[in-house]
Amino acid sequence: MINVHKVFRSFRFAGQGIVDLFRYENNAKVHLLIAAAVIIAGLWLGLARTEWAIILTQIGLVWAAEAFNTALEKLCDLVMPELHPTIKAVKDLSSGAVLVLAITSVVVGVIILGGKLVDLLYSQYSFR
């Protein structure tokens, strides 16, 4: 039988993790601001459903990667508070993964939003 109380408690803990991510982590705040700008641009450009699905998936992936990176860095700091080459490598790889995903998201955003913007400018100014 499913313990509904445990399920709701788990959601509450997860929600607190999301709040803490955006409250205390500077990079997560940057990702949040960029996501807001992308969403505003998407509304202005009139994205299609599929384009929204792709954009929102990219935003969610970057936020999730940032959360995993933050969790891993906090765990590393707890396990090994002093400098250690292996811990440094783990932290560098984790933050590098976030960077790879962020760059990929920018490319996806440029393809979708940039394409829409070019179409909009072309239709308004009819460059023929």
TrEMBL record:
**Which sites bind substrate?**
E66, S95
User: Among its keywords, does the record have Zinc?
Assistant: no
- List the lineage, top down: Bacteria, Pseudomonadati, Bacteroidota, Cytophagia, Cytophagales
One annotated GO biological process: phospholipid biosynthetic process
Q: Does the keyword Membrane apply?
A: yes
Per the entry, the cofactor note is: Mn(2+), Zn(2+), Cd(2+) and Co(2+) support activity to lesser extents.
Annotated keywords: ATP-binding, Kinase, Magnesium, Membrane, Metal-binding, Nucleotide-binding, Transferase, Transmembrane, Transmembrane helix
Q: Which cofactors, if any, are listed as required?
A: Mg(2+)
Please name the catalytic residues of this protein. E66 (proton acceptor)
Q: Which InterPro entries match?
A: DAGK, UDPK
Q: Which Pfam families match?
A: DAGK_prokar
- Protein name per Swiss-Prot or TrEMBL: Diacylglycerol kinase
